[in-house]
Specification:
Distance between the termini: 22 Å
Number of strands: 3
Largest sheet: 3 strands, antiparallel
Radius of gyration: 18 Å
Number of helices: 6
Structural class: alpha+beta
Strand order of the largest sheet: 1-3-2
Order of helices and strands: HEHHHEHHE
Strand content: 15-25%
CATH architecture: 3-Layer(aba) Sandwich
Number of domains: 1
Shape: elongated
C-alpha cells in the first residue's frame, strides 16, 4: 500500500471487492527509525551519496505512522479500522545479501547505484551493519510493521 499514489482510493478498492463480512489485513513497514538495521543503512546512504539516495531506501517505510494510517482509513470510509503494531525480525544470509537485495529492489535502490557506488556501499556497510551480524555472518534486526485490520459490513 505504501507505493500507491492514492492510498485512500487503493484502500476503498480493496474494501469494494471484498465479500460482505470479509476481513482485510494490510501490513506496512513501521517507521525506518524503528528498524535499526534499515535505519543505519539509510543514514549510511545519506552520508555516502546524499539524502535523495537514503530516501530511496526509506520509501517502503513511508506509512510508518499509526495516526496517518488511521487518517487514510477515515478518508477511505473504512469504519472501525484498527492499526495494530507487530514486531518481527528480518534476516539476511550476510551484509552483502542485504545490500544486494536492496540494490535489486525496484521500490528502493533499484537503478540508483552504479557498480562503483555499490562497491563503496558494501565496504562501508561491513562496518556500519556489524552490530547486527549474527553467528555465521548472517544479519538480523527488528523489522516492525503496522497492520490495518478492517471488516466489511
Amino acid at each position: 500500500m505504501m507505493f500507491f499514489d492514492d492510498k485512500p482510493k487503493a484502500l476503498r478498492q480493496m474494501m469494494r471487492v471484498m465479500k460482505p463480512r470479509g476481513r482485510l489485513a494490510v501490513a506496512v513497514c513501521d517507521a525506518v527509525e524503528n528498524s535499526p538495521g534499515y535505519g543505519a543503512l539509510a543514514l549510511l546512504l545519506d552520508r555516502l551519496f546524499g539524502q535523495e539516495v537514503g530516501d530511496a531506501l526509506r520509501a517502503p517505510f513511508s506509512l510508518g505512522d499509526p495516526g496517518r494510517l488511521r487518517a487514510i482509513c477515515r478518508e477511505a470510509g473504512v469504519d472501525g479500522a484498527e492499526v495494530v503494531p507487530r514486531n518481527e525480525k528480518v534476516r539476511f544470509a550476510s551484509i552483502e545479501a542485504l545490500v544486494s537485495t536492496e540494490r535489486a529492489c525496484v521500490w528502493t535502490l533499484g537503478g540508483v547505484l552504479d557498480d562503483d557506488q555499490f562497491e563503496r556501499l558494501l565496504e562501508e556497510a561491513e562496518t556500519t551493519l556489524r552490530p547486527f551480524a549474527a553467528s555465521g555472518g548472517a544479519v538480523e534486526f527488528d523489522m516492525p510493521s503496522l497492520i490495518i485490520k478492517a471488516q466489511k459490513a
